[in-house]
Protein backbone atom coordinates (compact mmCIF):
# COMPACT_ATOMS: atom_id res chain seq x y z
CA UNK A 1 0.00 0.00 0.00
CA UNK A 2 1.41 3.39 -1.05
CA UNK A 3 2.35 5.64 1.88
CA UNK A 4 0.40 8.89 2.19
CA UNK A 5 2.51 11.87 1.06
CA UNK A 6 2.87 14.56 3.72
CA UNK A 7 3.48 18.20 2.80
CA UNK A 8 4.87 21.01 4.96
CA UNK A 9 2.69 24.05 5.56
CA UNK A 10 4.12 27.15 7.24
CA UNK A 11 1.76 29.62 8.93
CA UNK A 12 3.13 32.59 10.90
CA UNK A 13 6.45 30.79 11.30
CA UNK A 14 4.82 27.58 12.55
CA UNK A 15 5.32 24.43 10.48
CA UNK A 16 2.74 21.65 10.26
CA UNK A 17 2.45 18.53 8.11
CA UNK A 18 -0.69 17.67 6.15
CA UNK A 19 -1.49 14.91 3.66
CA UNK A 20 -1.38 15.93 0.00
CA UNK A 21 -4.93 16.77 -1.14
CA UNK A 22 -6.05 18.24 2.20
CA UNK A 23 -8.49 21.11 1.47
CA UNK A 24 -7.25 24.50 2.59
CA UNK A 25 -10.52 24.81 4.52
CA UNK A 26 -9.36 21.99 6.85
CA UNK A 27 -6.05 23.80 7.48
CA UNK A 28 -7.91 27.10 8.01
CA UNK A 29 -10.20 25.41 10.56
CA UNK A 30 -7.12 24.26 12.50
CA UNK A 31 -5.91 27.87 12.79
CA UNK A 32 -9.28 29.66 13.03
CA UNK A 33 -8.98 29.98 16.81
CA UNK A 34 -6.05 32.37 16.31
CA UNK A 35 -8.17 34.78 14.28
CA UNK A 36 -11.08 36.93 15.52
CA UNK A 37 -12.86 36.84 12.14
CA UNK A 38 -13.74 34.09 9.67
CA UNK A 39 -10.95 32.94 7.37
CA UNK A 40 -12.38 33.23 3.84
CA UNK A 41 -9.35 32.70 1.56
CA UNK A 42 -5.71 31.68 1.77
CA UNK A 43 -2.72 33.30 0.17
CA UNK A 44 -0.34 30.51 -0.88
CA UNK A 45 3.14 31.87 -1.49
CA UNK A 46 1.47 35.19 -2.44
CA UNK A 47 -1.26 33.67 -4.67
CA UNK A 48 -4.88 33.81 -3.54
CA UNK A 49 -6.68 30.45 -3.36
CA UNK A 50 -10.22 29.45 -2.45
CA UNK A 51 -10.66 27.25 0.60
CA UNK A 52 -12.04 24.29 -1.36
CA UNK A 53 -8.76 23.87 -3.24
CA UNK A 54 -6.50 20.95 -2.23
CA UNK A 55 -3.00 21.23 -0.84
CA UNK A 56 -0.58 20.07 -3.54
CA UNK A 57 2.87 21.36 -2.50
CA UNK A 58 5.00 22.56 0.40
CA UNK A 59 4.02 26.19 0.96
CA UNK A 60 3.68 29.18 3.24
CA UNK A 61 0.08 30.20 3.88
CA UNK A 62 -1.35 33.53 4.92
CA UNK A 63 -5.01 33.54 5.94
CA UNK A 64 -7.35 36.19 4.52
CA UNK A 65 -10.25 37.15 6.79
CA UNK A 66 -13.32 39.30 6.39
CA UNK A 67 -11.43 42.46 7.41
CA UNK A 68 -8.93 42.14 4.54
CA UNK A 69 -9.88 43.67 1.19
CA UNK A 70 -9.85 40.37 -0.77
CA UNK A 71 -11.88 38.78 2.03
CA UNK A 72 -14.49 41.54 1.97
CA UNK A 73 -14.77 41.22 -1.81
CA UNK A 74 -15.17 37.45 -1.50
CA UNK A 75 -17.89 37.82 1.13
CA UNK A 76 -19.72 40.43 -0.96
CA UNK A 77 -19.94 38.36 -4.14
CA UNK A 78 -20.81 35.22 -2.15
CA UNK A 79 -23.70 36.91 -0.35
CA UNK A 80 -24.89 38.32 -3.69
CA UNK A 81 -24.96 34.73 -5.00
CA UNK A 82 -26.94 33.66 -1.93
CA UNK A 83 -29.40 36.53 -2.44
CA UNK A 84 -29.90 35.65 -6.13
CA UNK A 85 -30.54 31.99 -5.32
CA UNK A 86 -33.01 32.92 -2.56
CA UNK A 87 -34.81 35.44 -4.78
CA UNK A 88 -35.31 32.82 -7.49
CA UNK A 89 -36.54 30.32 -4.88
CA UNK A 90 -39.08 32.75 -3.44
CA UNK A 91 -40.31 34.50 -6.59
CA UNK A 92 -39.95 31.48 -8.87
CA UNK A 93 -37.34 31.46 -11.65
CA UNK A 94 -40.03 31.78 -14.31
CA UNK A 95 -41.09 35.11 -12.73
CA UNK A 96 -37.64 36.68 -12.50
CA UNK A 97 -36.87 38.77 -15.55
CA UNK A 98 -33.72 40.56 -14.40
CA UNK A 99 -31.88 41.33 -11.16
CA UNK A 100 -29.12 43.94 -11.34
CA UNK A 101 -26.59 44.66 -8.60
CA UNK A 102 -25.92 48.26 -9.50
CA UNK A 103 -23.52 49.95 -7.07
CA UNK A 104 -22.35 50.35 -3.51
CA UNK A 105 -24.18 52.78 -1.23
CA UNK A 106 -23.20 53.20 2.42
CA UNK A 107 -21.97 49.67 3.27
CA UNK A 108 -24.72 48.13 1.17
CA UNK A 109 -25.40 47.27 -2.46
CA UNK A 110 -28.27 48.83 -4.37
CA UNK A 111 -30.18 46.15 -6.28
CA UNK A 112 -33.04 46.40 -8.76
CA UNK A 113 -35.34 43.50 -9.58
CA UNK A 114 -37.75 43.19 -12.50
CA UNK A 115 -40.29 40.47 -13.12
CA UNK A 116 -43.74 39.12 -12.36
CA UNK A 117 -43.81 40.03 -8.67
CA UNK A 118 -44.37 42.98 -6.38
CA UNK A 119 -41.06 44.19 -5.00
CA UNK A 120 -42.19 45.21 -1.53
CA UNK A 121 -41.07 44.74 2.05
CA UNK A 122 -43.06 41.50 2.41
CA UNK A 123 -41.26 39.91 -0.54
CA UNK A 124 -37.87 41.05 0.74
CA UNK A 125 -38.61 39.59 4.17
CA UNK A 126 -39.34 36.24 2.54
CA UNK A 127 -36.15 36.43 0.45
CA UNK A 128 -34.05 37.28 3.51
CA UNK A 129 -35.64 34.43 5.47
CA UNK A 130 -34.80 32.05 2.62
CA UNK A 131 -31.21 33.34 2.61
CA UNK A 132 -30.92 32.48 6.29
CA UNK A 133 -32.38 29.01 5.68
CA UNK A 134 -29.82 28.35 2.96
CA UNK A 135 -27.00 29.68 5.15
CA UNK A 136 -28.02 27.39 8.03
CA UNK A 137 -27.91 24.36 5.71
CA UNK A 138 -24.18 24.95 5.06
CA UNK A 139 -24.69 24.20 1.38
CA UNK A 140 -21.53 23.91 -0.73
CA UNK A 141 -20.78 26.55 -3.37
CA UNK A 142 -19.37 24.39 -6.13
CA UNK A 143 -16.99 25.57 -8.81
CA UNK A 144 -16.59 23.89 -12.18
CA UNK A 145 -14.81 24.66 -15.41
CA UNK A 146 -17.09 24.83 -18.44
CA UNK A 147 -16.35 25.22 -22.13
CA UNK A 148 -17.00 28.88 -22.95
CA UNK A 149 -19.44 28.07 -25.76
CA UNK A 150 -21.35 25.76 -23.41
CA UNK A 151 -21.41 28.51 -20.77
CA UNK A 152 -22.85 30.97 -23.30
CA UNK A 153 -25.57 28.45 -24.17
CA UNK A 154 -26.25 27.82 -20.46
CA UNK A 155 -26.85 31.51 -19.74
CA UNK A 156 -28.91 32.01 -22.89
CA UNK A 157 -31.27 29.29 -21.69
CA UNK A 158 -31.35 30.84 -18.21
CA UNK A 159 -32.23 34.23 -19.78
CA UNK A 160 -29.07 35.78 -18.33
CA UNK A 161 -28.33 37.47 -21.64
CA UNK A 162 -25.82 39.90 -20.12
CA UNK A 163 -23.56 36.99 -19.12
CA UNK A 164 -23.97 35.21 -22.44
CA UNK A 165 -22.94 38.40 -24.26
CA UNK A 166 -20.00 39.01 -21.91
CA UNK A 167 -18.62 35.48 -22.31
CA UNK A 168 -19.02 35.58 -26.10
CA UNK A 169 -16.10 38.03 -26.11
CA UNK A 170 -13.86 35.80 -23.98
CA UNK A 171 -10.80 34.34 -25.72
CA UNK A 172 -10.32 31.68 -23.02
CA UNK A 173 -11.65 28.28 -24.02
CA UNK A 174 -13.06 27.61 -20.54
CA UNK A 175 -14.67 29.68 -17.79
CA UNK A 176 -15.45 28.93 -14.14
CA UNK A 177 -19.11 28.61 -13.18
CA UNK A 178 -20.39 28.52 -9.59
CA UNK A 179 -23.41 26.47 -8.52
CA UNK A 180 -25.43 26.73 -5.31
CA UNK A 181 -28.17 24.14 -4.80
CA UNK A 182 -28.82 23.81 -8.54
CA UNK A 183 -28.59 27.57 -9.29
CA UNK A 184 -25.62 28.47 -11.52
CA UNK A 185 -24.01 31.85 -12.15
CA UNK A 186 -20.77 33.44 -13.31
CA UNK A 187 -18.73 35.65 -10.98
CA UNK A 188 -15.57 37.68 -11.42
CA UNK A 189 -13.52 36.69 -8.37
CA UNK A 190 -13.39 34.19 -5.52
CA UNK A 191 -16.15 32.61 -3.40
CA UNK A 192 -16.47 31.14 0.08
CA UNK A 193 -16.71 27.31 0.10
CA UNK A 194 -20.21 27.04 1.58
CA UNK A 195 -23.12 29.08 2.87
CA UNK A 196 -22.26 28.81 6.59
CA UNK A 197 -19.81 31.68 6.15
CA UNK A 198 -22.68 34.00 5.15
CA UNK A 199 -24.35 35.15 8.34
CA UNK A 200 -24.26 38.95 8.34
CA UNK A 201 -26.66 40.58 5.87
CA UNK A 202 -30.06 42.22 5.61
CA UNK A 203 -32.47 43.34 2.91
CA UNK A 204 -34.53 46.50 3.02
CA UNK A 205 -36.50 48.51 0.47
CA UNK A 206 -34.72 51.56 -0.92
CA UNK A 207 -35.98 53.89 -3.65
CA UNK A 208 -37.00 51.84 -6.73
CA UNK A 209 -35.06 48.76 -5.59
CA UNK A 210 -33.62 47.46 -2.38
CA UNK A 211 -30.43 47.53 -0.33
CA UNK A 212 -28.45 44.37 0.35
CA UNK A 213 -26.72 45.42 3.54
CA UNK A 214 -23.19 44.18 4.18
CA UNK A 215 -20.96 43.74 7.24
CA UNK A 216 -19.02 46.59 8.81
CA UNK A 217 -15.54 46.46 7.22
CA UNK A 218 -13.86 46.81 10.63
CA UNK A 219 -16.26 44.55 12.53
CA UNK A 220 -17.58 41.99 10.02
CA UNK A 221 -19.78 40.22 12.56
CA UNK A 222 -21.96 43.35 12.66
CA UNK A 223 -23.97 45.05 9.92
CA UNK A 224 -22.47 48.27 8.64
CA UNK A 225 -24.41 51.48 9.15
CA UNK A 226 -26.80 52.28 6.31
CA UNK A 227 -26.83 56.06 5.94
CA UNK A 228 -26.71 56.60 2.17
CA UNK A 229 -25.97 59.94 0.56
CA UNK A 230 -29.16 60.70 -1.32
CA UNK A 231 -27.44 63.22 -3.59
CA UNK A 232 -24.75 60.73 -4.61
CA UNK A 233 -27.39 58.04 -5.08
CA UNK A 234 -29.37 60.34 -7.38
CA UNK A 235 -26.22 61.02 -9.43
CA UNK A 236 -25.57 57.28 -9.75
CA UNK A 237 -29.19 56.54 -10.56
CA UNK A 238 -29.34 59.23 -13.26
CA UNK A 239 -26.09 57.96 -14.80
CA UNK A 240 -27.47 54.42 -14.85
CA UNK A 241 -30.58 55.54 -16.71
CA UNK A 242 -28.48 57.48 -19.24
CA UNK A 243 -26.28 54.43 -19.81
CA UNK A 244 -29.30 52.23 -20.34
CA UNK A 245 -30.68 54.77 -22.83
CA UNK A 246 -27.44 54.33 -24.79
CA UNK A 247 -27.81 50.53 -24.44
CA UNK A 248 -24.45 50.38 -22.63
CA UNK A 249 -25.06 49.17 -19.08
CA UNK A 250 -22.46 46.41 -18.93
CA UNK A 251 -19.15 45.34 -20.43
CA UNK A 252 -20.74 42.94 -22.93
CA UNK A 253 -22.78 45.77 -24.46
CA UNK A 254 -19.69 48.00 -24.47
CA UNK A 255 -17.65 45.33 -26.29
CA UNK A 256 -20.45 44.84 -28.78
CA UNK A 257 -20.48 48.57 -29.58
CA UNK A 258 -16.69 48.63 -30.02
CA UNK A 259 -16.65 45.49 -32.17
CA UNK A 260 -19.37 46.87 -34.44
CA UNK A 261 -17.50 50.14 -35.04
CA UNK A 262 -19.90 52.24 -32.96
CA UNK A 263 -17.32 53.60 -30.53
CA UNK A 264 -17.02 57.06 -32.12
CA UNK A 265 -20.74 57.73 -31.69
CA UNK A 266 -20.51 56.49 -28.11
CA UNK A 267 -17.54 58.75 -27.28
CA UNK A 268 -19.12 61.84 -28.83
CA UNK A 269 -22.48 61.20 -27.14
CA UNK A 270 -20.80 60.88 -23.73
CA UNK A 271 -18.71 64.01 -24.26
CA UNK A 272 -21.74 66.00 -25.42
CA UNK A 273 -23.69 64.89 -22.36
CA UNK A 274 -20.86 65.89 -20.03
CA UNK A 275 -20.47 69.28 -21.72
CA UNK A 276 -24.19 69.93 -21.33
CA UNK A 277 -24.02 69.08 -17.63
CA UNK A 278 -21.08 71.45 -17.12
CA UNK A 279 -22.92 74.15 -19.06
CA UNK A 280 -26.00 73.69 -16.89
CA UNK A 281 -23.88 74.13 -13.74
CA UNK A 282 -22.32 77.31 -15.16
CA UNK A 283 -25.75 78.74 -15.97
CA UNK A 284 -26.94 77.96 -12.44
CA UNK A 285 -23.91 79.79 -10.99
CA UNK A 286 -24.51 82.78 -13.27
CA UNK A 287 -28.15 82.97 -12.15
CA UNK A 288 -27.09 83.21 -8.50
CA UNK A 289 -25.91 86.80 -8.56
CA UNK A 290 -24.25 86.67 -5.14
CA UNK A 291 -21.88 83.76 -5.95
CA UNK A 292 -18.24 84.81 -5.97
CA UNK A 293 -16.58 81.55 -4.87
CA UNK A 294 -17.07 78.27 -6.70
CA UNK A 295 -15.75 75.61 -4.32
CA UNK A 296 -14.83 72.25 -5.91
CA UNK A 297 -13.86 69.12 -4.00
CA UNK A 298 -13.71 65.44 -4.74
CA UNK A 299 -11.64 62.30 -4.14
CA UNK A 300 -8.38 61.48 -5.89
CA UNK A 301 -8.46 61.09 -9.69
CA UNK A 302 -11.94 62.51 -10.06
CA UNK A 303 -10.79 64.88 -12.80
CA UNK A 304 -11.08 68.05 -10.72
CA UNK A 305 -8.47 69.96 -12.74
CA UNK A 306 -10.00 69.37 -16.17
CA UNK A 307 -13.48 69.95 -14.77
CA UNK A 308 -12.35 73.30 -13.34
CA UNK A 309 -10.99 74.36 -16.76
CA UNK A 310 -14.13 73.29 -18.60
CA UNK A 311 -16.38 74.95 -16.04
CA UNK A 312 -14.34 78.15 -16.37
CA UNK A 313 -14.86 78.07 -20.15
CA UNK A 314 -18.59 77.71 -19.66
CA UNK A 315 -18.60 80.53 -17.10
CA UNK A 316 -16.92 82.79 -19.68
CA UNK A 317 -19.69 81.84 -22.12
CA UNK A 318 -22.16 83.00 -19.45
CA UNK A 319 -20.49 86.43 -19.28
CA UNK A 320 -18.39 85.82 -16.16
CA UNK A 321 -14.65 86.13 -15.57
CA UNK A 322 -13.37 83.08 -13.68
CA UNK A 323 -10.03 82.99 -11.85
CA UNK A 324 -8.62 79.64 -10.72
CA UNK A 325 -7.19 79.30 -7.20
CA UNK A 326 -5.67 76.09 -5.84
CA UNK A 327 -6.05 75.70 -2.09
CA UNK A 328 -2.65 73.94 -2.11
CA UNK A 329 -1.18 77.45 -2.16
CA UNK A 330 -2.53 77.89 1.37
CA UNK A 331 -0.62 74.99 2.90
CA UNK A 332 1.15 75.87 6.11
CA UNK A 333 4.92 75.98 5.85
CA UNK A 334 6.41 72.52 6.09
CA UNK A 335 7.85 73.21 9.53
CA UNK A 336 4.30 73.89 10.83
CA UNK A 337 2.64 70.89 9.14
CA UNK A 338 1.14 68.37 11.59
CA UNK A 339 2.27 64.75 11.54
CA UNK A 340 0.19 61.58 11.58
CA UNK A 341 0.39 58.64 14.00
CA UNK A 342 3.39 57.28 12.07
CA UNK A 343 5.33 60.51 12.33
CA UNK A 344 4.80 61.37 8.65
CA UNK A 345 3.62 64.78 7.46
CA UNK A 346 -0.19 64.76 7.19
CA UNK A 347 -0.87 67.00 4.21
CA UNK A 348 -4.53 65.95 3.94
CA UNK A 349 -5.82 67.02 7.34
CA UNK A 350 -7.54 70.38 7.70
CA UNK A 351 -4.86 71.50 10.17
CA UNK A 352 -2.27 71.38 7.37
CA UNK A 353 -3.97 74.41 5.80
CA UNK A 354 -3.52 78.04 6.82
CA UNK A 355 -7.25 78.50 7.22
CA UNK A 356 -7.10 81.97 8.71
CA UNK A 357 -4.89 83.38 5.94
CA UNK A 358 -7.19 81.92 3.30
CA UNK A 359 -10.25 83.48 4.95
CA UNK A 360 -8.53 86.87 5.36
CA UNK A 361 -7.56 86.93 1.70
CA UNK A 362 -10.98 85.84 0.46
CA UNK A 363 -12.82 88.28 2.73
CA UNK A 364 -10.66 91.16 1.49
CA UNK A 365 -11.33 90.15 -2.14
CA UNK A 366 -15.05 90.02 -1.40
CA UNK A 367 -14.77 93.54 0.03
CA UNK A 368 -13.24 94.87 -3.19
CA UNK A 369 -9.62 95.01 -2.03
CA UNK A 370 -6.59 93.97 -4.07
CA UNK A 371 -4.89 90.88 -2.64
CA UNK A 372 -1.58 89.21 -3.42
CA UNK A 373 -2.28 85.51 -3.87
CA UNK A 374 0.45 83.20 -2.52
CA UNK A 375 2.13 80.30 -4.29
CA UNK A 376 3.34 77.30 -2.36
CA UNK A 377 6.87 76.18 -3.18
CA UNK A 378 6.69 72.41 -2.73
CA UNK A 379 10.43 71.94 -3.13
CA UNK A 380 11.24 74.37 -0.32
CA UNK A 381 8.09 73.63 1.69
CA UNK A 382 7.19 77.30 2.16
CA UNK A 383 4.53 79.73 0.96
CA UNK A 384 5.89 82.48 -1.30
CA UNK A 385 4.58 85.74 -2.78
CA UNK A 386 5.56 86.48 -6.37
CA UNK A 387 3.44 89.48 -7.33
CA UNK A 388 0.27 87.62 -8.27
CA UNK A 389 -2.29 90.34 -7.45
CA UNK A 390 -6.04 89.93 -7.82
CA UNK A 391 -9.06 92.24 -7.54
CA UNK A 392 -12.62 91.03 -7.96
CA UNK A 393 -14.75 92.99 -10.41
CA UNK A 394 -18.49 92.71 -10.78
CA UNK A 395 -18.33 89.72 -13.16
CA UNK A 396 -15.33 88.02 -11.52
CA UNK A 397 -15.68 84.67 -9.78
CA UNK A 398 -13.03 82.53 -8.10
CA UNK A 399 -12.94 78.83 -9.05
CA UNK A 400 -11.35 77.22 -6.00
CA UNK A 401 -10.28 73.58 -6.02
CA UNK A 402 -9.12 71.53 -3.03
CA UNK A 403 -10.00 68.58 -0.82
CA UNK A 404 -11.47 70.76 1.97
CA UNK A 405 -13.62 73.03 -0.20
CA UNK A 406 -16.89 71.47 0.96
CA UNK A 407 -15.97 71.79 4.63
CA UNK A 408 -17.39 75.08 5.89
CA UNK A 409 -14.66 75.23 8.54
CA UNK A 410 -12.19 75.90 5.75
CA UNK A 411 -14.15 78.93 4.46
CA UNK A 412 -15.84 79.89 7.74
CA UNK A 413 -15.59 83.67 7.21
CA UNK A 414 -17.30 83.66 3.81
CA UNK A 415 -21.07 84.26 3.60
CA UNK A 416 -23.00 81.13 2.62
CA UNK A 417 -24.67 82.89 -0.32
CA UNK A 418 -21.26 83.78 -1.79
CA UNK A 419 -20.31 80.09 -2.18
CA UNK A 420 -21.42 77.52 -4.73
CA UNK A 421 -20.15 74.08 -3.75
CA UNK A 422 -19.54 71.26 -6.21
CA UNK A 423 -18.74 67.66 -5.31
CA UNK A 424 -17.07 65.80 -8.17
CA UNK A 425 -16.45 62.07 -8.26
CA UNK A 426 -16.01 59.27 -10.78
CA UNK A 427 -19.27 57.40 -10.13
CA UNK A 428 -19.05 54.64 -12.70
CA UNK A 429 -22.26 52.73 -13.38
CA UNK A 430 -20.89 50.38 -16.02
CA UNK A 431 -20.78 46.86 -14.58
CA UNK A 432 -19.13 43.65 -15.75
CA UNK A 433 -22.60 42.10 -15.94
CA UNK A 434 -25.84 42.30 -13.97
CA UNK A 435 -24.39 40.53 -10.93
CA UNK A 436 -20.76 41.76 -10.99
CA UNK A 437 -20.44 45.43 -10.27
CA UNK A 438 -17.39 47.62 -10.88
CA UNK A 439 -16.46 49.57 -7.71
CA UNK A 440 -16.09 53.31 -8.33
CA UNK A 441 -12.75 53.14 -6.52
CA UNK A 442 -11.44 50.76 -9.21
CA UNK A 443 -12.18 53.32 -11.92
CA UNK A 444 -10.30 56.01 -9.98
CA UNK A 445 -7.38 53.69 -9.21
CA UNK A 446 -6.92 52.87 -12.90
CA UNK A 447 -6.92 56.60 -13.69
CA UNK A 448 -4.39 57.23 -10.95
CA UNK A 449 -2.03 54.42 -12.05
CA UNK A 450 -1.79 55.82 -15.58
CA UNK A 451 -1.46 59.47 -14.54
CA UNK A 452 1.15 58.73 -11.87
CA UNK A 453 3.22 56.79 -14.38
CA UNK A 454 2.95 59.46 -17.08
CA UNK A 455 3.41 62.62 -15.00
CA UNK A 456 5.35 61.51 -11.91
CA UNK A 457 7.26 58.43 -13.05
CA UNK A 458 5.62 56.26 -10.39
CA UNK A 459 5.28 52.52 -10.92
CA UNK A 460 1.91 50.80 -10.67
CA UNK A 461 3.26 49.06 -7.58
CA UNK A 462 3.95 52.41 -5.89
CA UNK A 463 0.49 53.76 -6.73
CA UNK A 464 -1.25 50.61 -5.47
CA UNK A 465 0.83 50.76 -2.27
CA UNK A 466 -0.22 54.38 -1.62
CA UNK A 467 -3.89 53.86 -2.47
CA UNK A 468 -5.12 52.72 1.00
CA UNK A 469 -3.71 55.86 2.64
CA UNK A 470 -5.28 58.01 -0.09
CA UNK A 471 -8.62 56.32 0.55
CA UNK A 472 -8.25 56.83 4.30
CA UNK A 473 -7.81 60.57 3.77
CA UNK A 474 -10.89 60.69 1.55
CA UNK A 475 -13.00 58.93 4.18
CA UNK A 476 -12.00 61.57 6.73
CA UNK A 477 -11.84 64.79 4.72
CA UNK A 478 -14.09 64.50 1.66
CA UNK A 479 -16.90 61.95 1.87
CA UNK A 480 -18.47 63.33 5.10
CA UNK A 481 -19.18 66.64 3.33
CA UNK A 482 -20.48 65.44 -0.04
CA UNK A 483 -24.13 66.05 0.81
CA UNK A 484 -23.40 69.70 1.60
CA UNK A 485 -22.67 70.35 -2.08
CA UNK A 486 -25.06 72.36 -4.22
CA UNK A 487 -24.53 69.88 -7.04
CA UNK A 488 -22.94 66.47 -7.57
CA UNK A 489 -20.94 66.17 -10.79
CA UNK A 490 -20.28 62.66 -12.05
CA UNK A 491 -16.99 62.63 -13.96
CA UNK A 492 -17.21 58.98 -15.06
CA UNK A 493 -17.09 58.34 -18.79
CA UNK A 494 -18.77 55.10 -19.76
CA UNK A 495 -16.04 54.25 -22.27
CA UNK A 496 -13.01 55.10 -20.14
CA UNK A 497 -12.02 51.64 -18.86
CA UNK A 498 -11.81 50.36 -22.45
CA UNK A 499 -9.77 53.48 -23.25
CA UNK A 500 -7.43 53.05 -20.27
CA UNK A 501 -6.84 49.33 -20.86
CA UNK A 502 -3.88 49.59 -23.32
CA UNK A 503 -2.27 52.26 -21.10
CA UNK A 504 -2.67 50.58 -17.72
CA UNK A 505 -2.29 46.91 -18.60
CA UNK A 506 1.47 47.05 -19.34
CA UNK A 507 2.03 48.94 -16.08
CA UNK A 508 0.22 46.25 -14.09
CA UNK A 509 2.31 43.52 -15.74
CA UNK A 510 5.32 45.37 -14.33
CA UNK A 511 4.30 44.69 -10.71
CA UNK A 512 6.62 41.96 -9.33
CA UNK A 513 4.92 38.69 -8.40
CA UNK A 514 6.71 38.49 -5.06
CA UNK A 515 5.35 41.78 -3.61
CA UNK A 516 2.20 42.49 -1.60
CA UNK A 517 0.78 44.71 -4.33
CA UNK A 518 0.72 41.89 -6.87
CA UNK A 519 -2.59 40.49 -5.57
CA UNK A 520 -4.32 43.79 -6.36
CA UNK A 521 -2.47 44.16 -9.66
CA UNK A 522 -3.55 40.69 -10.75
CA UNK A 523 -7.16 41.40 -9.81
CA UNK A 524 -7.10 44.55 -11.94
CA UNK A 525 -5.50 42.67 -14.85
CA UNK A 526 -8.23 40.04 -14.72
CA UNK A 527 -10.80 42.83 -14.65
CA UNK A 528 -9.30 44.61 -17.68
CA UNK A 529 -9.29 41.30 -19.54
CA UNK A 530 -13.06 41.60 -19.96
CA UNK A 531 -12.74 44.76 -22.08
CA UNK A 532 -11.98 45.22 -25.74
CA UNK A 533 -9.49 48.11 -26.08
CA UNK A 534 -10.75 51.45 -27.36
CA UNK A 535 -8.37 53.69 -29.39
CA UNK A 536 -7.93 57.27 -28.19
CA UNK A 537 -8.11 58.80 -31.70
CA UNK A 538 -11.66 60.10 -31.36
CA UNK A 539 -11.37 61.32 -27.76
CA UNK A 540 -11.51 65.16 -27.87
CA UNK A 541 -8.61 67.19 -26.48
CA UNK A 542 -11.02 68.79 -24.03
CA UNK A 543 -12.13 65.40 -22.66
CA UNK A 544 -11.77 64.76 -18.97
CA UNK A 545 -10.13 61.45 -19.92
CA UNK A 546 -7.19 63.41 -21.35
CA UNK A 547 -6.19 64.42 -17.82
CA UNK A 548 -5.14 60.81 -17.33
CA UNK A 549 -3.96 59.56 -20.74
CA UNK A 550 -2.42 62.85 -21.93
CA UNK A 551 -2.91 64.76 -25.17
CA UNK A 552 -5.34 67.29 -23.71
CA UNK A 553 -5.44 71.02 -24.33
CA UNK A 554 -5.51 71.98 -20.65
CA UNK A 555 -2.51 72.32 -18.37
CA UNK A 556 -3.01 69.56 -15.78
Question: What are the main properties of this structure?
Answer:
556 residues, alpha+beta, Ubiquitin-like (UB roll), Threonyl-tRNA Synthetase, Chain A, domain 2, Rossmann fold, 23 strands, 37% helix, globular
Largest sheet: 5 strands, mixed
Judged by helices, strands and strand pairing, the structural class is: alpha+beta
CATH superfamily of the largest domain: P-loop containing nucleotide triphosphate hydrolases
- The domain count comes to 3
Task: State the low-pLDDT regions, or none.
Answer: none
Assess the beta-strand content as a share of residues. 15-25%
Mind telling me the C-alpha Rg?
A: 26 Å
Number of helices: 15
Termini, distance in Å?
71 Å
Biggest sheet strand line-up: 2-1-5-3-4
Indicate the mean pLDDT.
94
Tell me the total number of β-strands: 23
Q: Judging from the principal axes of the Cα atoms, what is the shape? A: globular
CATH class of the largest domain: Alpha Beta
Percentage of helical residues?
25-40%
The CATH topology annotation of the largest domain reads as: Rossmann fold
- The assigned CATH architecture of the largest domain is 3-Layer(aba) Sandwich
Amino acid sequence: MEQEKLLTVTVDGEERRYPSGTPYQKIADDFQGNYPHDILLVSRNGKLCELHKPLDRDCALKFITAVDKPGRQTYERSVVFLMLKAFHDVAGPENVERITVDYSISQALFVRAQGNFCLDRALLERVEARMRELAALELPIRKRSLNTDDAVELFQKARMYDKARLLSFRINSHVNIYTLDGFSDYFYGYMVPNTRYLRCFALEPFEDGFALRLPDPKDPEQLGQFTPSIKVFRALHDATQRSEALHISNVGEMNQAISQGDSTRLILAQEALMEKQIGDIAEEIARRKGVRFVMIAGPSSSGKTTFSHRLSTQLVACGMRPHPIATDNYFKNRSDTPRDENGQYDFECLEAMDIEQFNRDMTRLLGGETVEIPQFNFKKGVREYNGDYLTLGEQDVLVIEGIHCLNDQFSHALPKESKYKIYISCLTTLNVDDHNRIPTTDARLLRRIERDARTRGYSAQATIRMWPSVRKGEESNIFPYQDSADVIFNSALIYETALLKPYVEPLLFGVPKDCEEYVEAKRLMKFLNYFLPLPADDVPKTSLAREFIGGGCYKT
